[in-house]
Fold each of these.
Amino acid sequence: MRKCLILGLASLAVLFLTNPVFAQEAANKLIIGFGIYSAIILSAGFAVGLAALGCGIGMGHATRGACEGIARNPELAGRLTVTMILGIALIESLTIYALVIALILLYANPVLPKFLAVVGLS
Amino acid sequence: MEHPILFLCLILEKLGIPSGWIYYEEAAKYGTLAKVFAPHMVHSYFVCLLLIILALLGTRKKEFIPKGIQNFWEFTLESLYNYTKDNVPHGEGHSPNIVPFVYPLIVFFALYILFCNLLGLIPGFMSPTANINVTLGLTSITIVYYHLLGLRYKGLKYFKDFLGPIPWLFPLMLPAEIFSHVGRIISLSVRLFGNLVSKELLLGLLTMLAGKFFAPLPIMVLGVLVSFVQMLIFITLSMAYFAGAVEEHH
C-alpha cells in the first residue's frame, strides 16, 4: 500500500516536472493520443481477463458436478465426460467471444479513425 | 498476424495465378481471380479434394468384411448416424422422421470442419475455418436449412412459434424470439472462428518467441482436442436447431 502511494506520488511529481518542458500543443496531442491507445489496450486486456474469471467459475461448477456424478456412478463415466466436455466448450466460447472483441479492438478498431478525426489527430 | 508461408499459395503463384494475402487485399487490381484463389478458399478446395480422394479410395473395392480405409469410413459414418439419430426426432410418437434430410448435411459439416481444423496444425498450411467468411457461410447453411425444415413440417404454423407460448404476450415475446434467432448466426459462426483463430495466433506467437525450443508442440496437442470438440459442438448445435424447428413446443 505504502509502496503504491510512493510510486503514485513520484509519478505525479515527474508528470508535473515534465509537463512544462513540452510545447503546449504537442503535449496536448501526446496526452490525448496516449489516452486513446492506453484505453484501447486496457479495455482489451480487461475484457479477456474478466471473461476468463467468470468462465473459470462456471467451468469449475461444471467439472465439480461431473466429478460427483462419476464418483457416485462410475459406469456412466464415458457419457458424463462427453457431456462435460460439450458444456465446457460452450462455456469456453464466451471467453472466445471476449477474445474476438479484444482482437477487433487491437487490430481492426472501427471507431479509432473517426475518433482521431474528431479529436484532430491525423 | 498473417501466415508468412503458405505452400499451396506459393505453388499457385508459381503457376501464374494471383493467390495470396497480398493479392487478396488488393482484389480490385487483380480482379475476381484473386478472390476465387484467396488463401482460405485454396485451402478449402484442398480439403474438399482430400475428402473426395479418401471417399473414392474407400469405395474402390467393396468387401463384405471391411478392411483398412473402408472400415474407417464405415465406422465414421455409422457413429455419426447413431449420433444424429440420438439428437433429432426420428419418427417415434408424433414427431416426424427428419434423419434422412439432416444426416448428409451433418456428415458434411463434421468431415469438412474436422479436416479444416486439423489442416491448420501442419506447418505451412492454414485452417480455412480461421476465417470469418468460411464460418459465416457454414452457419448460413444451417440457419436457412432449419427455417426450411420448420416450414416444410409445420407449414405456416411455424411462424406461430415466434409469438411465444401465451397469445396476448406476443409484443413482448416477438422481439426476444427474433433476437434469439439472429443471435444464433453470430454465436455459431464466431465460436468456431474465434477458437480456431486463437489457436493459430497462439501457435504463431509461440513460434516467434521460442520456436527453436519446440514451444508450440503442447499447443498443437491442445489444438487436436480443440478441433474435435469444436466439430462436435457445431454439429450438436446444428442438430439442436433442426430439432427445435421441427418439434412441437407446447
Amino acid sequence: MLRRDFLKALGCIPLMTGIPGLAIAGTADYRYQNLLILIEFKGGNDGLNTVIPYADDHYYRLRPRIAIARGQVLQLDEHTGLHPALQAILPVWQAGELAIVQGVGYPEPNLSHFRSIEIWDTASDSNEYLDKGWLSQTFAQFPPPARFAAEGVSLGSEDLGPLAGGARAIVLNNADQFTRIAKLADDPSIHTGNTSLDRILDIENDIRHAASRIDGRYDFRTDFPATPFGNTLHTAAEVIASRSGVAVVRISLNGFDTHANQPATQAHLLKQFADGMIALKSALAELNRWNSSLIMTYSEFGRRPQDNDGNGTDHGTAAAHFVMGGRVRGGLYGKAPDLDQLENGNLVHAVDYRSLYITAAEKWWRLPAKKLMGGRFDSLNIIRT
Amino acid sequence: MRNWGLSLILLLSAGLAQATAMGDADAWHLLTRTGFAPNPQELANYAGLSRTEAVDRLLTNPSQQAVTPVPADLEAYMPRPEHFKDLSPDEKKQFRRQQARRNLELEAWWMQEMMVTPAPLTEHMTMFWHNHFVSSSQKVKSAQLMLRQNELLRRYALGNFGDMLHAMAKDPAMILYLDTQQNRKGQPNENFAREVMELFTLGIGHYSEQDVKEAARAYTGWSVDRTTGAFINRPGQHDNGIKTVLGQSGDFNGDDVLNILLEQPATAEWITRKLWRELISTDPDPLTIKRDAAIFRRHYEIRPLLRALLLSDAFWSDKNRGNLVKSPVELIVGSVRQLQIHPDPRALAIASRQLGQNVLAPPNVKGWPGGDAWINSTTLLLRKQFLDRITRGQEMPIPQKLLPDGAPEDATSFACDPEAWLSRLTPGSPQQRRAVQTGLLAVAPVDAISDNLPAAEYLHALLLDPAYQLK
C-alpha cells in the first residue's frame, strides 16, 4: 500500500518529477523496455511427454500406456524430442530462438496444486509462506514507470498469480470491451480503512489508469487461432501494441491436470500452445517487438513418470520449460530426466525454478540479482546481449 | 405477592425483548451473511426480533428440498454414448450442444430456486458445501449427476457433516470428478485420496504423502454404474491388504478411512475456520475456533456450530460489518431479491458465469477462492455493467446456441422500476432515503450521494457505489 500511495502522491504533484532526486524514473524506463511474457500451464503439465527422453528405455518401461512412440517424437537430438503436437514451434527451435530448460523444480517438492503454484507464484521455499507474488516483490523494489498502462496484465485466469499482492495489475478478457465499459469505474481518491473496500477502490483507480492508456483494437495481419487461447493471445497482443507500455503479460492455459485419458487432452493443449506461440511471435514481429520480448512457460509441477491405469498421470515434480524470443540463445539447458534415479517415484529437479525468474530479472531487465529472492539464485546464460 | 412478582418478571422480560429488538442494520447483516440481501418485507420480519430470536428462527426446521420443480429432462440419467470416440463429428457436436443446454437449464433452475426460496439459509449453505465438496460439470459432463449431487448437498446442508462426507465420497458426480472409478487394486489413482484430506477434511500439513498413497488403496472398488449413473461397489477391484493411515493400521475400506479423518481435531477445526471465513471475517480467532471445533467434533452437527458462530460477539462486531465481498451469486440474487424483479433465470446464470461464478463449474477442486479474489479489473466492471442494466432497464440477450433447437433468439429484461420501488418505501424525505441506504448498503457509500437526486438516479448511484460490492 505504501508504494501505491507514493505513486498516487507523485500523480497529484506532477511538478515533483522535475526534481533531480527523482531522476530514478528515467532508469526505470530503460529497464522495462524489455517485455516479459509468462505462459502458465495450469494444472501441472506432464513434462516427460512434452520434452521426451525418447532414447531412454526407462521412459517406455514407466509409461506402457501413454508413451509417445519413438517414430512420432519430433527429434531434437539423439536423446531428446518434442511431443508431435508441438510441430508448429519447430521453426523457432531451428532458428535458435527456443531454449528448453529441463528438470525445473525445487527441493522438497509439494504435490498439492494449490500449495505448489503458491510456491511458484511467490518464489518461496517449499516450507516458506510468502504473500506477495514474485513480480510484485520485484516491482516493489524496482518499479516500472508510472506512465505504463499497468505493470502487469493477466489474461485467461481470474487470479493475478505472480502479480498478486501489490503490483499495479489488471485482469483482462477483451481490451476493446474493457476500454468501453471502464467509464463505469469510480474515480475515488480516498481510503476508508476497510481493507476490502480499499482494495476495490485501488482496482477502480487501476482501471481508470489503464483504460486511459490501452488503445483497444489494433489491426494485426497475423491470423490468431480460432480457439479461446488464440483469442486470449490476440487480446494480449493488442495490449502490447498500446503505446503506453506494460512490463509483464501473463497468460494462463488451463486443463493440464490429466489424471485420466491424458494423451488426447494433452495433445490438444500442446497444439493450442504451439499454434498460439507462432501467432504471438508473428504479432510481436509486426510490432517490431520479437527482439524485446521474452516468453517463458511455467506450471505448478510436472507429472509422475509412472503412468496410471486410467491412461493418465498423477501429480509429480520437476518438468521441462520453454524460453523463447528473438534474443534467446536456443538449445537444451538443465539436465535430462534421470528416470532410474527417482525419489518416491518422482523426478529430482536439476534447475531451481527461481533461476528462471532471476534470468528474467537480471539478464532481461538488468536488475541486480543479489537484491532479489535473497540473492541465492544464479541466472542461466540463455539470453544474447 | 407471588403473582405480582411473576407478572413483574414477565413485564420485565417483555420489556427486555423489546429493548433488544435488533433493528434494520442488524437484520440486514444477519440475513445477508446467511442468505441473500433481503427485500424490505424480509427485513421488517426480522428487525423486531432480538439477535438470539432471529438466529433461532433461521435455524428452526430448515428446508431440505428446493421448491422449484426440476425440469423434466434433467430427471433421467443420460449417459455419454459408450463409443463416444467413434461418433461422427456432427454427432459429437450435437451431443455437446445438448449437454451445454442441459447445464444452463440446471444452472437456471438453481438460480430460480435462490431467487424465490423461502429458505435463503438453505441455499446459501448448499452453495457453501458445493464450494467445499467441489465437483464441476466441466469434468462430470452430466447435468443429471450434478443435479443429484446438488440435491444431496441441500439435504445435508444443515444436517450432519460426517454423514455428508460419507455420502459425498460415494456421490457419482464426485467419483467422476476426482477419478475414484479409476482407482483400482494395484492401480491406484490418488486424486480423491489426496483432495479429501487436503481440502475436505484435514487441511494441508496434517497428513503425509505416505498417508495419501495408503488411503488411496482403501477407496479402491468405489465406482459408478455406467448405465444407471448410480454408485456401485466393485469388491473385485478392492485392495484388501493392510493400510496404515495417520498411524492406524487395518484392512480399511473407504468408510473406515473417512472415519479416521473425522476423528482428527484438524478436521473439525478446518470446517469451523472455513465457516468463520464465510460468515464473519477473513481472520478467524484461533481460540474461538479451537473451542467451537472441539464441540463440533463430538457429533459433527452443523446447526449448533452455526448457532455458536452467529451468536458470537465477533459476528456482530462493528469491524466485521461490510468487510466481505459479495460473491457473483450473492450480488446477482441479492439484487433481484432486494429490488423484487424477476428476470429469466437463464440470464442470471449467464451473468453469474461472466462475473466468474458458473454455479456448476468451480475453477478447480479447491473451489472459488472467494473474498477479495472475486474482484479484479474485469469482474468489477462487469458487476457494474450488470447493476447498470438493472437500473436502466436494458435487456440481456440469451445466446441462441444455448436454447432448444428452433427456438427464436430470446432476451430478458432486468428492468426494475426505481420510481415504483422507491415510492413504496419513501415519499422522498431524507430520513426515508437514509433507510433505503441501510436496506441496500452494508457500509456508508464512498461517493457523496445527494438526497435530492431523482429516484432512478439515486438508486443507480447506490448500486454503482463501491460499497454495494460488500456484505
Amino acid sequence: MADVIEAAETHAEDHGGHGEHESFGIDNRKLGMWLFLSSEFLFFGALITNYMVYGNDTFGATVVPREIYDIPFTSVSSFVLLMSSLTMVLAHHSLATGDQNGTRTWLLATALLGSIFLGGQVFEFYEFINVYGMTLTTNPASSAFFMLTGFHGVHVAIGVIMLMSLFGMSRRQGGLSEGHGMNLELVGLYWHFVDIIWIVIFTIVYLLGAV
Amino acid sequence: MTDEAHHAPHPTTGQYVKIAIVLAVVTAVEVALFYIDEAVDMAGWDGPLLIILSFFKFVVVIGWFMHLRFEKPLLSRFFAGGFILALSLYGIVVGSFLVGLITR
C-alpha cells in the first residue's frame, strides 16, 4: 500500500508537483463541480423540453399556466436572483482579497436574496393553487410548469442552505481559510448555475410561453 | 480561449457592478419586448430577440461571474459539451413533436 502511495506522489511530482488533488492542472473538486453542472443541463433540459411540449396541453381543463402568469412580479423575482449572482461574486472577490467581514456580508446578502426569490415562488404557487385552482395534477401544462419551476426552487433552497453553512462556518472560525475558499468557489459556481437556468426559464416559460 | 485570456486578471468590484447593471438593463429590455409585443404585434420577431438577449445574459454570467473566461480551456470544453449535448438531444425531441413524428 505504501508503495502505491509513494508511486502516486512521484507521479504527481512528475506532472508539475500539483499533488494528488489535481487532474489536468485543475483542482479535482472544481473539475467535479463543472462536470456536475454540465450534467445538470440534461436534467433541466428534460424539464424545459417537457414544458415546451406540454405547456399548452390543457387536457380539457380551463386554466393554462401562461394565461395566469404575473409578469411584473416574476420580473422582480428574476432581478432579485440576478443581483444575488453579483453579491455571490463579491463574496468570492472579498475572500480573495482577504476581507473576511466583506465575505460574510456578501454571503448573507446572497442567501437573503435567494430567500426572497424563494418567498416569491411560494407566493406564486399559493396564488396559482388557491386563487386559480391550478395544481400539479390539473393538466399536463400545470404538471410541466410545477415540475420545472419546483425543481429549480429546490436547487435555490439547497444553495441557500450551503450559503448559510459557509456563513456559519466563517462566523464560528473567525473567517474562511484557504481550504474553505475552494468551498466558497464551488458554492458560487452552483449558485451562478442556478441563476443561468432561471435566465432560460424566465425567457422560455414566462416571456415566450409554450411552443 | 488563449493562454493570455487564462492569465488575464479577474474583474474588479467596479467591473462586477457594471456587468450586473448591464444584465439588469438587458432583463428590463426583455420585459419591455414582452409588453411591446402585446401592444403591437411584432410578427414573431419578439421570440428570436428574446432568445438572443437571454443567451447574451447566459454567456455573461458564465464567462465573468463563473470566471469560465479566466479558467483553463478544458473546463469550457466540459461545460460546453454538456450544454451542446442537452441542446442537441432536446432540440431533436422538440423538433420531432413539431413535425409530428411523435404523436401525443
